[in-house]
From TrEMBL, chain A:
Database matches in Gene3D superfamilies: MetI-like (1.10.3720.10)
Keyword field contains Membrane: yes
Superkingdom in the source lineage: Bacteria
Listed GO MF terms: L-cystine transmembrane transporter activity
Major location category of this protein: membrane
InterPro entries documented for this protein: AA_ABC_transptr_permease_3TM (IPR010065), ArtM/GltK/GlnP/TcyL/YhdX-like (IPR043429), MetI-like (IPR000515), MetI-like_sf (IPR035906)
Membrane topology summary: Multi-pass membrane protein
Residue ranges of domain ABC transmembrane type-1 in the record: 18-206
Family as reported in the entry's similarity comment: Belongs to the binding-protein-dependent transport system permease family. HisMQ subfamily.
Organism from which the protein derives: Vreelandella nanhaiensis
Transmembrane regions listed in the UniProt entry: 20-41, 53-77, 83-101, 184-202
Entry's Gene Ontology cellular component terms: ATP-binding cassette (ABC) transporter complex
Protein name per its UniProtKB record: Amino acid ABC transporter permease
From TrEMBL, chain B:
Keyword terms: ATP-binding, Nucleotide-binding, Transport
Domain ABC transporter intervals: 2-239
Similarity remark: Belongs to the ABC transporter superfamily.
The protein, known as: Amino acid ABC transporter ATP-binding protein
UniProt entry tagged with the keyword ATP-binding: yes
């Protein structure tokens, strides 16, 4: 039935592409986090003009498929901007993932900020803290804890979404599998194996997530 | 030393109060009483601009702030001279007891961390919670949390501490320890303005009791006078209603 020997031989080949996949996801996640925090703070503080722009940004990147966005950046934009002709697939994928996921993450971070009870804000202001001190020292650390499970979910989603980069010609985990499968014709074995690799990576992350949550919850034990 | 002149606050078109005047001296303790919804808490919150008054002047020591022209810097200065104790404590949930008390000293007063922590430890000792310095608010009882709220206000080294119904959301068993701490502060001549429904406490501690009703100061007098011989019919009616269940009588 299954050609196990082939799968065993394929495993190290595919694993050698895992670092690129993780690298793309990690870099995109870091950029997305920064951007999402910015968007969330703009939304919460209702910064004039920027608030409207943030809404438009979030609306667009949540309202269109990731694949469409990736194609727009990789195939579409170079038509408009000369300098982007040489944009490579990895950069385009990281850019697309960053913008797409930051839109989602901004909304969860905003919800986490709004969820922190108002009395702490008033207490911080009453002792003479400025808005930015309040944000940095009181609100964001607590919002981080509330938003962490959701943000980790987005990270998991992002790892899986890097597989779309193969449509931009990037030979990452999925792209490599596709190539191997079409030369061996053992599609079931190849794609089953890559599915297992993604699955194990996600499971490891979920384990890490639980540990992280225990750590972040230490201030809230009764 | 602290004075409010013609302070007016509106919510939308609704006047909460207008032209409120109130003066107090250093070391004086004022208790504000009155029916719910008469603007007592709002008045207190206006003193440090948690609510921005529409007009009026607030003076604390040599700092004079005109509500109509108050800049952000004025408001920060005013807040550094006043400290606030909240009904719901408002402790920072991500900080330990010690950090809750030292936070303002570090961030606002720019005190070195070591010094701020040493000072916070002294305060913890004074409020009887030296053993709880590393506990987070979630692990503390309501009474302990409120005492830390008071400790945080003490740390601000403010000219006046404003108490907004500090015992109203406490379980009955925790009320006394909080009131005792406030009495201790009173004995140390800490200037305070206290909004409360604890009449016995008002009697014991206040230098002056202020009765507010429908956005106005109706009457103010030392507690002996106000509780035993209230002049205004509205004060009499309020005291009769609130003291009846306790068995005390009002002439």
């Amino acid at each position: 039935m299954l050609n196990l020997e082939y799968m065993w031989d394929l495993l190290p080949v595919l694993l050698s592409y895992l670092p690129l996949t993780l690298e793309m996801a990690t870099i995109a996640m870091l950029f997305a986090l920064v951007l999402a925090c910015l968007l969330a703070v703009i939304r919460v503080s209702r910064v004039p003009l920027l608030n409207g722009l943030s809404l438009l940004f979030i609306s667009f990147f949540r309202g269109t498929p990731l694949l469409v966005q990736l194609f727009l950046f990789y195939y579409g934009l170079p038509q408009l901007v000369e300098a982007l002709v040489s944009i490579n697939g990895v950069t385009a994928a990281v850019l697309g993932l960053t913008l797409h996921f930051s839109a989602y993450m901004a909304e969860s971070i905003r919800a986490a900020i709004v969820g922190i009870d108002r009395s702490q804000t008033e207490a911080a202001l009453s002792i003479g803290m400025t808005q930015s001190q309040l944000m940095r020292r009181i609100i964001l650390p607590q919002a981080t804890r509330v938003a962490t499970p959701t943000l980790m979910n987005y990270f998991i989603d992002m790892i899986k979404a890097t597989s779309l980069a193969f449509t931009l010609g990037v030979t990452e985990l999925m792209g490599a599998t596709q190539k191997e499968a079409s030369s061996s014709f053992l599609y079931l074995e190849a794609f089953l194996l890559v599915a297992i690799i993604y699955w194990v990576v996600v499971e490891l992350l979920s384990w890490g997530q639980r540990r992280l949550e225990v750590y972040l919850n230490k201030a809230y034990q009764r | 030393m602290i004075s409010l002149e013609a302070v007016t606050k509106r919510f939308g078109k609704q006047n909460v109060f207008s032209d409120i005047d109130l003066q107090l001296e250093r070391g004086e303790i004022i208790v504000i009483i009155g029916p719910s919804g008469t603007g007592k808490s709002t008045l207190l919150r206006c003193i440090n601009f948690l609510e921005r008054p529409e007009s009026g002047r607030i003076t604390v020591g040599d700092l004079r702030v005109d509500a109509q022209h108050a800049t952000r810097a004025d408001i920060l200065k005013l807040r550094r001279r006043t400290a606030f104790v909240f009904q719901n404590y408002g402790l920072f949930a991500n900080k330990t007891a010690l950090q809750n008390i030292s936070e303002g000293m570090i961030v606002v007063d720019k005190m070195p961390k070591e010094k701020a922590h040493a000072r916070a430890r002294e305060i913890l000792k004074r409020i009887g919670l030296a053993d709880k310095s590393d506990a987070y608010p979630a692990a503390l009882s309501g009474g302990q949390q409120q005492r830390i709220g008071i400790g945080r206000a003490m740390a601000a080294n403010a000219d006046v501490i404003l108490f907004d119904e500090p015992t109203s959301s406490l379980d009955p068993q925790w009320v006394e320890e909080v009131l005792n701490l406030m009495k201790q502060l009173a004995a140390e001549q800490q200037t305070m303005i206290i909004v409360t429904h604890e009449m016995q406490f008002a009697r014991d501690v206040a230098d002056r009791v202020v009765f507010m009703d429908e956005g106005q100061i109706i009457e103010q007098a030392p507690p002996d006078e106000l509780f035993t011989a209230p002049k205004d019919p509205r004060t009499q009616r309020f005291l009769r209603k609130i003291l009846a269940p306790t068995g005390q009588t009002v002439p």
